[in-house]
User: Fold these one by one.
Assistant:
Number 1:
Amino acid sequence: MEIFDMREFDAHELVVFGHDAATGLRAIIAVHSTALGPAAGGCRMWPYATTAEAVADVLRLSRSMSYKNAMAGVPLGGGKSVIIGEARKAKTPELFEAFGRLVDSLGGRYVTAEDVGTTTADMAHVARTTRYVAGLGAAPGVAGGDPGPKTALGVLLGIKAAVKFRLGRTDLAGVTVAVQGVGGVGYHLCGMLAAEGAVLSVADVRPAAVQRVCEEFKARAVAVDDVLALDVDVLAPCALGAVLNSHSIPRLRARIVAGAANNQLAQGQDGVALHSAGILYAPDYVINAGGIISVAREYQGGATEAHVIADIQAIPARLTEIFERARRENRTTNAVADQMARERLGRRPHKLVA
Ligand code: NAD
């Protein structure tokens, strides 16, 4: 595997492969940039079919964390880790302790937290063997804990900024929103949207998760295959990456795409297709920064939940700046965000698509 030549490599500072025979741990840590501080990003547990797939994913996610952290204004660089394995079957406390030792061996260049497939309980095991971990349980009123609700708050505020920019509306009463994925973030987002009067359509591969949201927030259940193509004001992808691609974009009927999922665009070019279709895209790593803002405050220590919420309230202004600049310069919002992030990282511009 020619890692240095991979498109996703993008001048990563460090990539570490870790193995622990006793627990079966197979993990990769990628540190994209420590220019702004220790590289921070969650640990994903996923049953990758091949090592090449795991490497590509960790590199892509790690670079996104550099961009996300730079744009969120937190004093952290970008990194990410993956544990290769089936989260529902292969988890043990010892596995996460072994992962913690791997994190610790980097001496603080990388700080981990939970991500898809890992939880605050898993991070508690990691914390037994390293102090370079956040996203642990927090006492009420103190910064930290599950980042999901904080990510949801940032997405809600981002949706409001996008609705104001694209639809000229200052409230969400009657605004139609389709939410793909009602897990840790999507569930809380639905609650917040419903409280503001938005009309919800939801889809998830887990029927019980859909039923809960329908009962609690009067959402309408739609089929997983249909949610992306609904005629709604806002589509909020809160499940998987790469949902915006050459196959899905021609089917979209939403005016705005603004959701929590990481790496929503399959390729940078897909931003051009959205732009051409008149769909306003809120760059994922800008709108979904609430969780990392919480993690950053927790890791620094001494902060309250009110500090975290105040930081998250800066997300809509950041998005509006991107929307305005994209309109002024007739460019895609993702290209504008990438350029702003790279300027903050002190990196040379990469090949921009628009
Ligand atoms: P989660 O695993 O709790 O929820 C994801 C949900 O999507 C699950 O309910 C799952 O059943 C559902 N899903 C999976 N495939 C689907 C499909 N094909 N169609 C519809 N639903 C499907 O994860 P989460 O923590 O809520 O994160 C959601 C997304 O947001 C992920 O892409 C994650 O990387 C991103 N994100 C999360 C955070 C955070 O703080 N948790 C922060 C930033 C970004």
Number 2:
Amino acid sequence: MEYRGYDSAGVAIINKGLHVYKKKGKVANLEESLVAKDMHAHAGMGHTRWATHGEPSDRNAHPHVSANGKLAMIHNGIIENYARLKQELINKGYTFKSDTDTEVLLNFVQDIQQNNHCGLEEALRIALKRVVGAYVLVLLDADNPDTIIAARKGSPLVIGVGKGEHFLASDASPIIEYTKEVVYVNDYELAIIKADELVLKNLGNEKLTPFIQKLDLQLAAIEKGGYDHFMLKEIFEQPDTIFDCLRGRLDVQASTITMAGVQNNIDKLKNADRIVMIACGTSWHAGLVAEYIFEELCRIPVEVEYASEFRYRNPVVRPGDVIIAISQSGETADTIVAIDKAKEQGAFIFGVVNVVGSSIARISHAGAYTHAGPEIGVASTKAFTAQLAVLTMIALKVAQEKGTIDQKRYNHLLNELHEIPEKATAVLRQSEHIKKIAAKYKDARDFLYLGRGYNFPVALEGALKLKEISYIHAEGYPAAEMKHGPIALVDEHLPVVFVATRDSYHDKIVSNIQEIKARKGKVLAVITEDDTTITGMADDTMVVPAADELVAPMLSVIPMQLLSYYVGILKELDVDKPRNLAKSVTVE
Ligand code: F6R
């Protein structure tokens, strides 16, 4: 679970009483501090934190312990009305050991339990009716050492069902080593778990039947498989993950794309008045590429929205609108709430999600999985290219059904898509060359990334990857926009990365490169392999095989990923767990 948060970690076990151990920093720090401890127990829980309320420290790490020392709680999410609850508790004489909202909620539960002389389960149910915010909670009770109680609203929770044992986690990856049978807990549900019993209830205390699903996930998929880092493994997996994403869907011989989620809703999709892509971060960049593709092929107006902005303004959404929600994790809180908002206003929601069974996959009306396999490296890489592959297939299918693409172009693009995995392999062969380029520029203070058309979002993605992994300030811009401001940054110290594969903007971007050279900027360019024009101008080049401009971003992004990775490792940074980040952003 460490990839979901790693600023501190802690465990609680019950073994003749409640024992809680916590440490600031990565799990390894905690592990080291526990070497000499007896950690045997029949019930226990652990947590890795991404700080919201209170700086990363031993005392703010989870699990938290209630004032009476009997209850322990771990919590993901944010309790929005915690300040008011805290004041109520302070008025009653409670004191707090941490700065967290979690400790407030825990003592609130304890207080209810004491006042109502009730068990933990009932106290939790009462407490949750007053709580505003998102959470997944897991509790241990020293008076009931065989039981774990959990509750969910807005943050993910999966329960693994083993033989005489149960497991709880934020996603399925740590569970698959022990069992492939899982239950996804829904919002407003409570799970009361013993080694050999799982009871699921709603907040009205009614029992629910757990729906057990079988996971189709192999252990090897969440291991490093001989690579130094997950990020590198995931970059190198891309020929396979793109292939997996196309497999069973794209048939070049038959000239077909088979996607049930699209086919079953084709009328809604092809008659959409407007498509709104909603996403965050790297997934938002995939949405930007898709905007160009959908408008070009389907002639449907497209808007691309940051989920976090869309949800808080008063967006105009009409029943004829199709929302395409893009998310690797399927658990990004901002995206989930934006979907809920659009749904309320009658939009049709189509999810493009990587994690099977995740919240976004479940709340969408229809969707298509990206099938990239688990992405553990905190910086998104293979999920991005798989998102592009899926979104391109959807656009092609809709365009064909709508009659906005002729058969020749359709067949050509099917073939171009089909060739991407092989061409991606060719790009990866340059990794040593890109490592040398990384060594040359790793000490730069700033980077500028420029691209036009389909490659403009790739420039944004390149800049985001570098920022995340190397902590170097980087900005992505449409290449033509640079003369309206960012060009003021250019001097002989500034590396400018051009994503400049051969496309309909090529001559224009060549002029932009000249403009940078004229101001002594250092030019690093991602180019098509036979491009002698840019080779003659750039300080360094990274080549990709020729491809139609519509599918080229799946190739041109790979050198960007490798460049960030190598700058990161040459600076001796933890590329899989960059500071301040977490893999799934399940808080707003
Ligand atoms: C960047 C990165 C983030 C995510 C963003 C959305 O490398 O990983 O920007 O893309 O947090 O996450 P998902 O796609 O899980 O909704």
